[in-house]
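Job type: complex structure
Entries:
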Amino acid sequence: MKKLVCILSILISFSLIGLSGFTPEEKIKLVKLELVRKFPLEEQEVFFKTTPKIALDSSGNVYAMDNMQHTFFKFDRYGNFLKKIGRRGQGPGELEFPFLISLGENKVFISDNKGISIFDLDGKFINGFRKFRFTRSMAVFKDKVLLSESNTNNLIAVYSHSGKKLNSFGEIYKINYSILTDWQRYRVENVINWGEIVCSNNYIFFVSALFGDIYKYDSNGNLIKKKRIKNIDFLEDNKKFYFKTTTIKKWRNKSLPLRLYFQSAVYFENKIYLLLIDKNIYGEIWKLDKDKLEVEKKYSFFNFRETLPTQIRSRNIGINKRNDDNILNFYISFISEGEHFINVYTSKMK
Amino acid sequence: MKIKHLFFFSLILLIIGIFINAYAYISKCENVIKRNVNKDIFMGRRTVVYLVNNVQTYCRPCTDYKLLKEKEGNIVFYVEKDFSDIDIENFRDAFEIRNKDKVLRITDSWKKLIDKCMNKKNNSTNFLIIINKSGKVEKVERF
């Protein structure tokens, strides 16, 4: 009898261990993507000095922005070079260390050190306006430009295309700044509020890079839903550090724990795609449903575990679909051994 | 003959020295600022002038503004010439500038001063000038 009880209890404890380890996201199948193209090619006589940030238009053309060349390049969907747009300067149509690119309303929006410059899809300068806050993220929502800026009380500021500030919404993360001595407040604020804005036709999403929270707003800025990405330990650690720091007396002369979990986010056909950067899940793209805000599919595009992580870094993602079928094209910008390029991967949609 | 030559030579050197000193005095940044202050119609006693040539989004050029607006009279911001009205509006919003304080596009004389006096080495192209009660320049700070 005693033996039976022992065996049963062992069996029960094993099953409990198994259950506790079970999470719905572990069931999600990892789809391996296939590399089909890489550009720019040597014969194109175009090169990037920095890993470009990329954006795609509805025709599938790729706009790749190079911070160090103060310019952006236009390629067609096959990676053929079409045009180089902008040059260094502070005049109209000129750029200085551009760092964000976004497309909308058949226009290209570039955020640089000075402000926002707006071009048409052929690269003709339309207009621009200055900005006086550091911009963490930018997206175009209909006839508005959405910026996530420093030194504000709201997460997202809404500007017209002419630069007039219309309103702002969303609650920023706030912490007890006094624990982080020797750290300037704006730096802490920028770290904890780092994230990306992505837009569908009717909704605005903000994905927090440090905490994994996803906020969904309607077009008026009303919060509809909030969800958190699960099963990434360090996101919880981030939260604990920044919000439950009662045990830490002072955080002196140390770097801030800064483990962002994704590098870039993009919205495409009712889904949000996140390009992951953590060393354990590097080389993956997670697809989230726009309504449930849950991970429903994972794509693997590179096995970083087999490569030294310092050698290769991905930075940005853009997605389009092949005209003839349901195949998705993932455009991912890379740096590898000092060379910057864009890889194109494919996957069947379903 | 030789003494005469020596005398003329010394005289020429002396005149050159006087000119160099005079030029150095005239072109000294603080003195250029003083002349600009006297010429500018907005400058009165107890005035603070911000010459904002380069707005760094990280650096807050108007950090002292919060302190100064509590105790100083007029505060004038000179911004770049090509600022649009919307830019000025956004500038006011970003730095929480009171309605009573002026935000103006920079005049040629102030622009010249920036070009002359800015510290290119450490990228200090903005100026904070405080004029005291008696109308004298009390403080000039590059940032």
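Summary: Chain B is about 45% helix and 20% strand. The two ends of chain B are 57 Å apart (CA to CA).
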